[in-house]
UniProtKB/TrEMBL annotation:
Protein name in the entry: Guanylate-binding protein 1
Species per Swiss-Prot/TrEMBL record: Hondaea fermentalgiana
Coiled-coil region: 486-513, 596-634
InterPro entries, alphabetized: Guanylate-bd_C_sf (IPR036543), Guanylate-bd_N (IPR015894), P-loop_NTPase (IPR027417)
Highest taxon of source: Eukaryota
Domain Guanylate-binding protein N-terminal span(s) in chain numbering: 40-222
UniProt keyword annotations, A-Z: Coiled coil, Hydrolase
Amino acid sequence: METRSQTPSPQAQGQPYPAGWRAAGAAVRLVRPSVDRTRIQAEPDALSQLELLGDQEQVRVCSLSGTQREGKSTLLNMLFDGGVQAGTGFQAGHAMDPETAGLWIRLRRDPEDEHGWLVMLDTEGLDSPHVPQFYNWCLAALALLVSDCFLYQSRGSIDARSVDRLDVILRVAEQLARHSQQDQDDNEASQPSFMWILRDHHLTMKHEPRREMSEKLSEVAFRSLKRSFGERYDCFPLPSPHARPADIAHLAFEDLEPAFKDAFAHLKRRVRGLLRPGVRRGDRPMTGPLLAGLVRTYCAAVGDRVGALREIEDMPTQAQMLTTLAAERSVRAGLAAYDARMNAAALTMDSLGCHHAVALEAASKAFSAAMLGDANELENRQAALTMQNEIACFESDFCLQDGEIIERRKLASGKLKSLATRLQRRASQMLAEARSAFDETFEGPATFDSPKDVDASWLALCERFPDTDLGRNAQCVAKVSEARIHAQITETLRALQKEQESLQERVRVEMSNSEETALVEFDHLRNQVQSLSTDAQEVSHAQFVALSSIRENMGALSAGLEAARQELETLGASAVSREELESAGSHVQTRLTRVHDRQKQVEEAAQHKARELEAQLEAEVDALRRVLTTKDKELVRLWTAIGDISCNISEIHDHLGS
């Protein structure tokens, strides 16, 4: 058992101690740390000394935890026996190195209970240099768990760092208590009293200290405080003991500041009130053997690292935290520079690689500018690797190709992966919109009037969605070609239909003109025929009249001849000679002959004229027949052409339908 060789205080001298107790009034090491401060172990001799107290006398423990070099040991010595001089009780000093390592205890008889003991427990400072934080937290948590009154000390005021430290200590205590309950069924959970001592306090509080402390704590820390202590928590401001704290070890209590002495007297009454015999923790009183068992159990729990203790142990130190924060700041600066470059760029899947290289260079420059100058090379490389993985994390595998082993890299995660995924998603969305617009535009073959309209619509879609592979999509190109063919066929059909309509109009016009021409020519021929008939009738009538006149003349001549014959016969022989009669008869015969000849000429002329009129009429009729025949042939040709066009249109429609 390690003790500090020093003269017991006057209060400790002459007090009865258990038989075999070898350190009357002196400080005894209860828990020793390992050299690297990663393990703690209970001192067997100290545990044996506690077990000498027996099960019949109650032990009340008061512990004090806080940062180093703030007078914890001195304050405990004063609470124990009122002395502040060096060489009594817990070792105190003002050098840079801490005086207390591990846990130390002092034992004395309770002045208010002749069958009870008071144990003052001093702890190592919570922020000792080059010491793992887990070690500090476990020491404070162990002190809390074995104490009836747990004093937590900070300087000045309640700050966020002290609150966070207390919250971790309470969480570690919960884990240790839970583990000890699994191993020690006879040890029931209990709630000690808690008091936050504000050393060298000089500020004015708005409210009473307990309320002030409750309002300064975070919601999470206050819940932890309530779970650990219930309503047994308080706060006590303690002013500075002296203008020169370094001289306090050489001063008597009467030499301290009056304000401090008054506040300390009040604090001592409060602490003694929390440790008076009537106040208990749980259903069983704390005894020496029970205290030794608890210390042994909690030390084992710390060594086992059970439950969340493993995670708490991995929490970084302050220096590690600063280094980590600096690295995180540098990584954030690099990532911000990368994001700024990538957000300012017009990203596409084709240009993503080039923009990534430029942005990565900018990120490296920003990272180097923000990195702490005193950070070691390993930390810089680790932070740079973290930034690179945040930007682009690749997975590699190896394969055999052409007899050689080659490495294949695949983008697994990171900002570049997110950008690529977002671009791919946007490209897919744009492609879906492009396909929808394409399907809407090229819904059917009858939507375009000409191939030029198809090409114009296709070009407009490609310009509207330039970031898609619409122009290289084989199905879209084939559908556009099909639409172009349909548009060309539609244009041809429309031209054929127009030509058909034009031919039909021409046939209608030609038929109308032919009918009108035929009617006009027929009327003209009919008029000519009527005119010829009228002329023939007039000629025939004139000839008939002439013939009638000739017949009348001939009749008159015949009558004259007959009269002359009768006169001759009457006269008989007359004085007219035969020659005269013959001459007269010859003259009459000549005239009759001329009349017959004239009649014959008139008849021949009438017949000739009639033949000429008939020939002319036949010629006109033949000409009209020839015109009508020509028109009929032309109409037949037009109708044949219209029929061919209709057949072609029907075949094209049938082909399109199939």
